[in-house]
Design a protein that fits this description.
single chain; alpha/beta; Rossmann fold; seven-stranded parallel sheet; 9 helices; binds NADP nicotinamide-adenine-dinucleotide phosphate
Length: 245
């Protein structure tokens, strides 16, 4: 249970992030739902409140230091502490390396990797004073394996795992654990536009024979966010149906 724990979830407007926010709320956490437009998380906040939980919407671009500072101060003003940070916000700008524009590289790295750096640095300051924290970074199976057409995305996710391990070492003395969850192919907007042929080829590579659901990822995040996971840090937990092991 996460009763009265305060959790910031970035990229909570849809897909995996929204599911993580819903799941942590059902475990008792108070939710700070972050996306680039506060309106996009308004229905999530209403839903959590209707179910007896507590949540706020915060507008922040995780790649902007000023927005991230505001995100942390909004969480503190609303709930007085920050126990859990889920660095979930992420984007793709897929194209072959030979055609990749500098802007494709910078934009993906700014959101997926620098965003996690900024959010972690700001939230960990609060967690350090509390001597308690759980930070969970959402990486990806393709950060582990590499993927054609995703050099920028894979580099951002591989880099995020380096950040995870370094932060796990640095913040351990403050009783803050830092872990990652590496989803495989999950049914969200990010994967919905794949042609049917590509989807069936991908499913054939997955021992469990199907794409995962956002709930599969949320359950792994909830475990790493719990008190029971207090002796796990620097770990990358794969939720990929066995496609990479
Ligand atoms: P999604 O459906 O495209 O949702 C992405 C979320 O990130 C949205 O809520 C989006 O909010 C938010 N976001 C994007 N840029 C942001 C920014 N600069 N600041 C704040 N929020 C921002 O993606 P998803 O499939 O749920 O993926 C979630 C995470 O899982 C990502 O890190 C992704 O890399 C990772 N992942 C996904 C899969 C998969 O198969 N789907 C597999 C492995 C890893 P707005 O656009 O509304 O602002």
């Amino acid at each position: 249970m996460l009763t009265d724990r305060v959790a910031i979830v970035t990229g909570a407007s849809r897909g995996i992030g929204r599911n993580i926010a819903e799941h942590l709320a059902t475990c008792g956490a108070k939710i700070v739902a972050v996306s680039r437009k506060a309106d996009d998380t308004a229905d999530l906040v209403a839903q959590i409140k209707q179910q007896g939980g507590d949540a706020i919407s915060v507008q922040a671009d995780v790649g902007q230091a000023g927005d991230v500072a505001k995100m942390v101060s909004s969480a503190q003003e609303a709930f007085g502490r920050i126990d859990i940070l889920v660095n979930n916000a992420g984007i793709t700008r897929d194209t072959l390396m030979a055609r990749m524009k500098e802007d494709d590289w910078d934009t993906v790295l700014d959101i997926n990797l620098k965003g996690a750096f900024l959010c972690t640095q700001a939230a960990a300051k609060v967690m350090s004073k509390q001597r308690y924290g759980r930070i969970i970074n959402i990486t990806s199976v393709v950060g582990q394996m590499g993927n054609i057409g995703q050099a920028n995305y894979c580099a951002s996710k591989g880099g995020l795992m380096g950040l995870t391990r370094s932060n796990a070492r640095e913040y351990s003395r403050r009783n803050i654990t830092v872990n990652a969850v590496a989803p495989g192919f999950i049914e969200t907007d990010m994967t919905s536009e794949l042609p049917e042929k590509v989807r069936s080829e991908m499913s054939a590579q997955i021992p469990l024979g199907r794409f995962g659901s956002p709930e599969d990822v949320a359950a792994a995040v909830a475990f790493l966010a719990s008190d029971q996971a207090g002796y796990i840090t620097g770990h990358e937990l794969s939720v990929n149906g066995g496609m990479y092991m």
